[in-house]
Amino acid sequence: AAANKGGAFVQQHRTLAGLFPDDPDVEAMREIARRGAPTVEQLRTEFSRAADRAEQIAAGQVNDGWGWLRGAMSGIVTVRRTDADEATLQIISSARASLSRGEVAEAVETIERLEGEAAGAMNGWLANANRRAELDDRLASINERLLSPAGGNGN
């Protein structure tokens, strides 16, 4: 339960490590327990901010101080979206849908397909989402072993 609250869960991890001292999933969670992993809801909020920035980049609306010039030139020069821009928007839309279903690992895999500056805009979210996805995966693996007919003893 503590792992799903978004904060560190060092004490709970120590307890789990005491119960399963040689478990590779428990050992792999040590750093996540120290740092914590954001909740899915926190990831959704963070995703919205990062995705807005990535979408602005894909749409050419970069806040680089030259927006006034692009605005002045908009009637003279036509800026067309490239296939790469459209692909970026589609990737973000697909990841957003995955995240709305609570599928963090799926959203991570989708965002990892981004390239260039749009990918850079998603780096912070991606690092946090990777921690949540790994934690969820490790906990699911432990639960599966514990609930298996062999009772998690490897038989």
Defining key terms:
single chain; 155 residues; mainly alpha; 67% helix; 0% strand; elongated
Counting H and I runs of at least 4 residues, what is the number of helices?
Answer: 9
Low-confidence stretches: none
Largest sheet: none
Q: How large, in whole angstroms, is the Cα Rg? A: 21 Å
Helix and strand pattern = HHHHHHHHH
The total of beta strands comes to 0
Residues in β-strands, percent: under 5%
If you average the pLDDT, what whole number results? 85
Distance between the termini: 28 Å
Shape: elongated
* Helix proportion range: 55-70%
Structural class: mainly alpha
Give a verbal description of the structure.
The chain is mainly alpha-helical. It has 9 helices and no strands. The protein has helices at 10-19, 24-28, 30-35, 40-58, 67-73, 83-100, 104-111, 116-121, 123-147. It is elongated. The two termini are 28 Å apart.
Outline the secondary-structure elements.
Layout: H1 10-19, H2 24-28, H3 30-35, H4 40-58, H5 67-73, H6 83-100, H7 104-111, H8 116-121, H9 123-147
Helix pairs in contact: 4-6, 4-9, 6-7, 7-9
